[in-house]
Model the fold of this input.
Amino acid sequence: MENREIARLLEETADLMEIAGENPFRIRSYRNAAAAIERHPERIAGLLAGGAESVTRIPGIGKGLAAVLQEIAARGSFEQRDRLLEKYPPTALELLKIQGLGPKSIASIWERRRVSTIDGLEQLCRDHKLRMLPRMGAKLEEKILRSIAHYRQSAGRLLLSQAGELASELVAYLSAEKGIKRVLPAGSLRRGKETVGDIDLLVTGERAEAALDRFLAHPSVTEALGKGPSKASARFGTEGVQVDVRALPAASFGAALQYFTGSKEHNVALRALAVKKGFKLSEYGLFGAAGDTLVAGAAEEDVYAALGMAWIPPELRENWGEIEAAASGRLPRLIELADIRGDFHMHTAESDGQASLEEMAAAGRALGYEYIAITDHSKALAMANGLDEKRVIAFAERVRRLDHASLGIRVLSGIECDIRKDGSMDLEEDALAALDIVIGSVHSHMNMPASEMTGRLLRALECPYLRILGHPTGR
Ligand code: DGT
Ligand code: CA
Ligand code: CA
Done:
């Protein structure tokens, strides 16, 4: 099992413990351990082979958790998780993703109505039966119906970061097979979309077909969905993500990469243009109109070049005008990670971050940044140990005294000041004035009617010290 999967089991169990109303300190310890494991550079499964002591060295993992980890490594689950899953069906975990529904409500709905699925919950709301349960009302029913609609839109898709991690794990795994020359992600993952429906991998090399068997033999495959001579599909890992692997001959690898990178809209437009120019374009290559002479196929660049245009970065391939731009040499230069000169939003251990100011400065310098702004939470976020006016002023003073030359990076003093319900700022202006930069963010009362929320934000923007509006969409 990969660390990511072990971490997920622990997180899931912590969620179930929360639904069961168990000891908050134990729940915290599971979550902390999950975070530590996910971050840990070595494979936990490998470490465990050397005995329990090898994992108790990791901060956040004591003897009790080490035993749990050994049990997970041995049989893929552990006693406490099994016990909770007997009590609550696994679908209850999905209910936690519905905004507005906490673990206590989920437990109550299950105990009183035996409902543990999203469809069941939706029905309860539609039948106005949720409001009959203690501490629930008509307003909550409406809110939950909205949350369910929102959840369904994004359900089944992975965040780009998660898909990227899974894909690189698989790329490394498949590349280890002899006779495999290249393994590349295509599809929405290669286009850098925010979410990814399924992962598409392309393989080439004289033994590319062998990669299909190796893929299906991967220990994290949970369900094989099919295998043909040049394609295999399976559900993968605890997330159940679909992965499609295609084995391709080198001569058409570029054309296939172009085709399977998509988007579909980009492909349709490109194919129409090819036809207009007297070609035929498919995943097998760019051919003359008769379909028998291969014009381009081995490299993606050649396909675009033969169509009279510059190679188009995958991130632009959505048929939003990129084909016309490429044909007339007007493609924009994309912003790369290396273009980022600094970061204006970061928390430290002063509030709910984990590292100190000095550690953040060192990390910023290592990334090649010229500056960072430290912007911890303000006092309204008491749970995050937000700063009050006194601490803000002391912090601004501390930053002024820093020896920036020896830090090797410019550090600015800042705050992520909470915007109150009425649009006023959480801190007095004197304190805000002492800082280099002020971010204002909404963290509460997210469900106001649009006009009220707009009024609230406009009032916040009137504050003369506010320079940046934080996470305006609430994400
Ligand atoms: P996803 O998986 O929903 O995040 O989005 P994609 O873009 O990865 O879509 P997917 O996995 O269904 O297909 C991968 C690529 O294959 C897609 O971007 C373009 C190409 N493709 C798939 N179906 C068609 C089709 O019917 N026509 C054309 N022209 N291309 C297609
Ligand atoms: Ca895909
Ligand atoms: Ca696919």
The CA atoms of residues 26 and 456 lie 39 Å apart.
